[in-house]
Design a protein that fits this description.
This protein is an alpha/beta fold and 256 residues long. The protein contains nine helices and nine strands. The chain starts with 6 loop residues before the first strand and ends with a helix.
């Protein structure tokens, strides 16, 4: 097993705020000492006014790469359906260079049907989207090996989701980070499934960093189960980073 320190992330949900607010909040999160800042890959808000302010994921990540100096950046998570896998690999490589090797490629199979319908993508089925993700991941990895220049580092791949038959199998084979939306006993059950998939793939499950939503009620149990990346959330016209400050203080105590 790999002994990992606790890390704290922030998902800054790019909805209902202008870009000046986004830029200012990213700078504040980095100054506070967050380890990672994520956005998300959607075209419309997921809550509140359906047609409220919203911005695109990857152009924003490129800007974050220039506007920050040491915090890692990424999407929680990129929708595999929206871009050709080889193009996505090239985009990720480019943002990796812009940020001097601080990109995390967070990726998932996609789920928000309005994005698909409005932008002309075929929604299909959940199983079909997962199969497409399974086909895309080796293409992304292969493209990274062909690009000139190559990525600055071996770009960490984060896979989000908890499907036990397909998603966790992909995590075992391709992910450096697994982001789970479960907690407590449910997380323990998912981890048991992931360990079984890792055994089939002849991989040490300790190589995969476990990421969870930052929730006070399940914090200690999730930590004991092996979660080491805790992701707080902020969004809206005036994002509040009070929760992030509390989690950073806890991290510093645990890691001392």
């Amino acid at each position: 097993m790999i002994d990992r320190p606790v890390r704290i992330g922030l998902q800054l949900q790019p909805q209902h705020m202008d870009y000046a607010t986004i830029r200012r909040t990213v700078a504040e999160a980095e100054e506070l000492g967050a380890d990672v800042i994520f956005n998300w890959d959607h075209f419309y808000p997921l809550s509140g006014e359906p047609d409220g302010l919203h911005f695109e994921c990857w152009t924003m990540l490129a800007a974050w790469g220039e506007a920050t100096s040491h915090i890692e950046i990424g999407a929680l998570v990129t929708c595999n359906s929206y871009r050709n896998p080889d193009l996505l690999a090239d985009m990720a490589r480019t943002v990796d260079h812009i940020s001097d090797g601080r990109l995390i490629l967070g990726i998932g199979s996609g789920w928000f049907q309005r994005d698909y319908d409005e932008y002309g993508y075929e929604f299909g089925t959940a199983g079909g989207r997962l199969d497409a993700l399974g086909e895309a991941l080796p293409r992304i990895e292969a493209r990274w090996g062909k690009l000139n220049p190559p990525p600055v580092r071996q770009i960490p791949v984060l896979i989000g989701g908890g499907g036990e038959k397909k998603t966790l199998k992909l995590v075992a084979r391709h992910a450096d980070i697994w982001h789970s939306f479960t907690e407590g006993d449910a997380l323990a059950a998912k981890l048991a499934v992931l360990r079984a998939h890792c055994a089939d793939a002849e991989r040490d499950p300790g190589e995969i960093e476990v990421s969870v939503v930052a929730k006070e009620a399940s914090r200690d149990q999730n930590y004991e189960l092996g979660a080491r990346l805790f992701v707080a959330h902020a969004g809206g016209p005036k994002p509040d980073l009070g929760e992030l400050r509390e989690w950073i203080a806890w991290r510093d105590t645990v890691n001392a």
